[in-house]
Amino acid sequence: MEEAYPLLTLFFYGTLKRGHANHDRFCRGYLRVEEATVRGRLYDLPFGYPALVVPEEDIRAVGTADPVSDASGQQTLGRTEDSRPEEPLVFGELFMFDDAEDRLPALDRLEGFDPTGPSPYRRVLIPARTSDGATVPAWAYVVEKSAGTRLPGGRWPP
Phi/psi of residue 57, each to 5°? Predict the structure, then answer.
């Protein structure tokens, strides 16, 4: 009997969204996708992709080298009603997968996230708001600060 893995939810705001450069290579096999928002600031970088900065108080966990444990821990937070202030918002897509053990290491490599050392991006667990107003814990790749051009509308591409 095949072992069932916990569901993995990720918030993508750049090249992993549908129709963008990394989507086909890294997002095949998703179970579900929907529009969502997170609190934060989005920056357009000169390299052809964006960077997200989120409020520290929104970070529920930081990614580890154990993808199955990360996905399992995400499930313990569950859906809640959103009572957070809405501004500023970043718009993206919420993807659900059932292959955390393979998916997270591949995405971590793409994003330059090394759970054991310094990295340009961190994978963090943050609340994402769905179109029905519920809040879902989702992993996202973020930076601490950015020198890019701020996108005040919270959408990439600008």
Answer: -70, -15
For residue 1, pLDDT beyond 70: no
| Domain assignments of the chain as residue spans, ordered by start | 8-149
Which is nearest to 45 in space by CA: 124, 126, 156, 139? 156
Calculate the average pLDDT of the chain. 90
* 84 has a pLDDT exceeding 70: no
The CATH homologous superfamily to which domain 8-149 belongs is Gamma-glutamyl cyclotransferase-like (3.10.490.10)
The four Cα atoms 146, 148, 152, 156 give a dihedral, to 10 degrees, of -100
In order of 5, 107, 141, 149, the CA distances from 114 in angstroms are 22, 11, 12, 25
Contact yes or no for 20/107 (Cβ under 8 A): no
